[in-house]
Structures are given as C-alpha cells and as structure tokens.
Fold this sequence. Notes:
The chain is built from 8 helices and 17 strands.
Amino acid sequence: MGRITEDLIRRNAEHNDCVIFSLEELSLHQQEIERLEHIDKWCRDLKILYLQNNLIGKIENVSKLKKLEYLNLALNNIEKIENLEGCEGLTKLDLTVNFIGELSSVKTLQGNIHLKELFLMGNPCADFDGYRQFVVATLQQLKWLDGKEIERSERIQALQNLPVVEQRIREQEKAYCLKRAKDKEEAQRKLEEEESKGEMGRSHTGSGGHWHADLSATLPSFEESKDYIQAPEIEEGQCKGKEFDDREDDLEFWNKPSLYTPESRLETLRHMEKQRRDQERLSEKKKKVKPPRMLVTEDGRALNVNEPKLDFTLKDDEKRNQIVLDLAVYRYMDTSLIDVDVQPTYVRVMVKGKPFQLILPAEVKPDSSFAKRSQTTGHLVVCMPKVGEVIIGCQRTSKPVKSTPDSSKEQTSKRCQRFLSDSQVTGKTCSGHLSLQASM
C-alpha cells in the first residue's frame, strides 16, 4: 500500500529545495496511494496538487488547504464528491475516470464560489440521462464542464428543466447504488475465496515439508549423502516448476473477465505486488556466486585473459631489445585502480579488480621492467627488457648480462605487492610488481 509520507513529499519538492511547509505545487501521481492524508497539515500553502492515477477511494484531509486552486484526482477510486467545502480558492477540479455514481453529491461544491472548471467525464454519473443539465443548473458558478464552455442559454434551459431532470437523476442514482452494492458483495465473496485457497495452499506446503523432514531422518547415511549431492538439481527443478505454475496463474488472472470497479483495481494492484515479490524471490534463488577467473592452470601454465575487454598492442622492440605492451586503459580512470605485475613469461594488469593477462613471446627481466601512463590518452605502456639482451636508450647504458639457471630461478621466485598512484613518479621496483611513471 502506497502512503503519503514526509520523505515522499520531500523527494517531490526538489524545485522548492525540499522545503515542504512553503510548497505551492506538489505532484504525487502514480504512487499507488490509497489514502489522502497529512497534506493539509504539512503543506498549507499549496496552490496546485496532482494526485492522478492512484488508488484514492475518498476525498479527505484537504479542507484546510485554503489557497488550493487546482486539484487533480483523475484516475482514482473516488465514488462521491465530498470534503471540499474548506478549499475556498478552488477554481479547477479534475475527477476524470473515477467511480462517482452519486451525481447529487456535486451540490457540496455550491459553496466553492470560485470554481470555474469541473471534469467528470469517464464516471458512471456522466452516463446518466440529464447529467450535464443537472450539473450546469446546480453549480451556477461553473464556466466549463468536461472541457466544454457553458453557454448562457444552456444554463437558462437547464434551470427551467431542473425539477424534472433532478427526479430522473435520483432514480438513476438509486439503480446504480443497488448495482454497486451487488458488485461489492461479489468482490467480497471472491476475496474470501482467494484467501481460503491461499491458506489451504500454505497448510499443504507446510505438511509436505514436515513429511519430507521425517522421511529424510529415517534414511541411512549413504542415501543421505546421495540426496545431498542431488539437492541442487531437485531445488532447481522445483524452482522451474514454481515459475511455470506462477506463469499459468498470471495468464489465468489476466484472461479472466472482470468488471471495472474500485475493487478490481485494488485486486490488480495486489496481484502485481505479489508477482513482483515472487519474481524477486526467484531471482535471489537463481543468483550464483561467480567463480574466480582462472589465470594459471594446475600445471603452472599461464593463460591469456582480457576480462576488462581492453584494446592492446604487443610490440617486439628489437632496437632496444625489449617487449612493449600498450594497453588502452580508460582515459579518466584513477591510476590507483591499476596494478601491474611482470613475470618472466607473462604480464598481468589488474584494472579495477579485473585481470588482463598476456603470455609473452620471449622471457623478460621483471627487475628491469617499468610502466608509465599517458596523461593525454590514459594508455598504460609497460616496457619489459628481454633476458640476456642489452637495453640501449638515452636513460640506460648497456651491460652484458649472463643468464644462469640460478639467476633465472631467483627472478621467477621474486614477488611483492605494490599500488599505483597518479601523483607518484618512481622508477623500477625490487621485483615483478611495478610502480607507475606519470610521464608521457
């Protein structure tokens, strides 16, 4: 059930800096509100109030809104015009597509002397013979009715025929009230039947649950382990069966013929709420923990992985005897969310916790590797010198390097952890994890 709360009004008062006591315009349409409350206490200065397309069944708690000029209650469950005498400044009232059958209740608006526009189309009373004549003669301050201007000649004729028209209106009202009473009884009977069916279903489910528990308690340990292994499959089958049954019930509900009444609108709302809750429960059951991404096989072989789905290029720079990885990292992403790890046979980059891993075409030296990020494009560039080769560059001098089995093992075993930052500009670190150079 939707209710009018202070939080709801504040969320719809952003145009007034969320201040509600001085609000002049408020829109609470399509909020599934069933009762009109609190507004006359919290928003005394309201001039325009939109409450269309809700489930409000009665006009109430608005009599203190002395400044209210326009009230929109279209598409609700209102059956009678009442409690608007205190709205002294009311000039426009919209009650389109409600369930007003007591047309004589428009007499309560005779005290609203500033009322100029009234909308009653789509109500049962609008189908009464003499409806327009009765309203025009009863509310002489009106200028427009259902969007059509009231001519002076039309009002004179309506006043002349008022006694006869009023008698016809009362007879039609009486017939409508009898019909509505029968509709309410039928709706109450259906509601009781649905509640009894629901209680029977719950009791049946409960007894079935106890039976299963008692039976499982008598099974031997081997059978218990077997059932335990098969439990996910059984549970999945039960979920599918329940989903199918719910779909069948939903089709039956929407295909069932129904009268357009306040009760049927409420029934539709209850059904949609139940459907939404069931869907949420099913989705929670279907949720499974995503297994971690495999980066290295059981036999120690690294895999190529690109979970962040980034574009990249891998170049073999023969001039400087190094391998260069250019990774198109998101341009505006913070550098602290990037972690680089260079190993002799592969390179791994964690981008916001998602791994990018690439097997290298040649063995590299993690100790001499370095990473830098472009300040214009955001790209990450990782330079990895090859093992046993000489690096030639303006910042590095060459020295022959002897590769021995012991040194190779030592390089492979070196691992440490570090994080990147935009403000930090450092060189190479003691092992495969690199810090970032913010140059380029």
